[in-house]
């Protein structure tokens, strides 16, 4: 279980399956571990040719294990079970080796991306998502999605959110993948649609892709029906293009009114995350006077690049991660908390 405790933050779904699997018996655990599920693709064991189901490679509890009769003599359980237990120990050892290897790759990645320190790993996400209410000073009401700038948590985690979708820099995805840093995109169709493939790829690699309206209009200037069209139509666009219907919505410019929240709720939106800080390649705009991150802070930045910033998206991430790590925080996945 100690090894399972080391499972990376992005492996939490697998971890939950592993823990559940313990109740079902070693074979289930072994199946999950041997499949390499949850490990980065490059660490997963290759499936033998023509075999897609990892469980097909497992020693079957019913079938005699190789060398069964010799192994089984004098033991409290039979040869197949013992072989299975040995297989489980081997698989756990292999899994630990893979984790160590993944960590070594992350250390190397931090160095190659010019980070002074390796980003901290996020802790295990909460078993149950915290109950949410709107931040003080924000609109609230029955049936309206809560408006947040910070997720309620005691953990030293912050959340990276990237808006609009104009710049589609493959280096950004490579950097965040290599460092194993999660993020959530809030996409506006008007700029994202030039290449939804980029965001599909990010989503496949674990990023959340959420709603930032169709045309990036200032919603408070629009009628309820117009606002609803801006939000609901982007729900449809993202479901079609990304393959998953968003549950989070961020209004452009953070500008919203009661109609916005009513419209968002009617489109299936559950939470409206705004932000506490904004990250740029050369600075962080702090939401509070203490110029410090607070547990659960949502950080905003944008898919932008050289044209607007005279710097790249990896430059922005490098600057941000330096501060996040210096202040003892890890970047967690927003969708694990809200
Ligand atoms: Zn925006």
From TrEMBL:
Q: Which domain of life is it from?
A: Bacteria
Q: Which GO terms describe its biological process?
A: carbohydrate metabolic process
**Domain NodB homology stretches:** 156-332
Q: Which GO terms describe its molecular function?
A: hydrolase activity, acting on carbon-nitrogen (but not peptide) bonds
Residues annotated as region Disordered?
A: 47-76, 119-139
Q: Where is the composition biased (Low complexity)?
A: 56-65
Q: InterPro entries, from UniProt? A: Glyco_hydro/deAcase_b/a-brl, NODB_dom, Polysacc_deacetylase_ArnD
List UniProt keywords, sorted A-Z.
Membrane, Transmembrane, Transmembrane helix
Query: TM spans, by residue?
Result: 21-43
Q: Which PANTHER family match?
A: GLYCOSYL TRANSFERASE-RELATED, SECRETED PROTEIN
| Protein name as annotated | Polysaccharide deacetylase family protein
Q: What's the source species for this entry?
A: Streptomyces hoynatensis
Recite the lineage of the species.
Bacteria, Bacillati, Actinomycetota, Actinomycetes, Kitasatosporales
């Amino acid at each position: 279980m100690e090894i399972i405790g080391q499972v990376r933050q992005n492996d939490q779904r697998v971890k939950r399956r592993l823990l559940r699997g313990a109740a079902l018996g070693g074979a289930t655990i072994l199946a999950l571990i041997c499949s390499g599920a949850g490990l980065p693709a490059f660490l997963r064991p290759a499936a033998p040719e023509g075999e897609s189901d990892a469980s097909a490679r497992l020693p079957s509890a019913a079938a005699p294990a190789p060398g069964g009769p010799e192994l089984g003599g004098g033991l409290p359980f039979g040869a197949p079970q013992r072989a299975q237990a040995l297989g489980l120990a081997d698989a756990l050892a292999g899994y630990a080796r893979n984790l160590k290897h993944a960590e070594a790759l992350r250390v190397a990645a931090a160095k190659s991306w010019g980070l002074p320190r390796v980003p901290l790993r996020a802790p295990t996400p909460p078993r149950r998502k915290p109950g949410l209410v709107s931040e003080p000073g924000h609109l609230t009401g029955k049936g309206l999605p809560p408006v947040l700038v910070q997720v309620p948590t005691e953990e030293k985690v912050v959340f990276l959110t990237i808006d609009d979708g104009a710049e589609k820099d493959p280096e950004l995805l490579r950097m965040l993948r290599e460092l194993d840093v999660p993020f959530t995109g809030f996409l506006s169709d008007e700029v994202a649609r030039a290449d939804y493939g980029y965001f599909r790829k990010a989503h496949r690699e674990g990023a959340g892709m959420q709603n930032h309206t169709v045309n990036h209009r200032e919603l408070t200037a629009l009628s309820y029906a117009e606002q609803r069209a801006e939000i609901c139509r982007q729900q449809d666009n993202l479901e079609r293009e990304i393959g998953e219907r968003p549950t989070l919505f961020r209004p452009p410019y953070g500008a919203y009114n009661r109609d916005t929240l009513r419209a968002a709720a009617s489109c299936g939106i559950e939470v409206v995350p705004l932000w506490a800080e904004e990250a740029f390649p050369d600075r962080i705009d702090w939401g509070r006077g203490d110029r410090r991150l607070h547990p659960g802070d949502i950080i905003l930045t944008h898919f932008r690049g050289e044209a607007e910033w005279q710097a790249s998206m990896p430059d922005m991430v490098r600057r941000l991660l330096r501060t996040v790590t210096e202040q003892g925080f890890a970047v967690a996945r927003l969708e694990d908390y809200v």
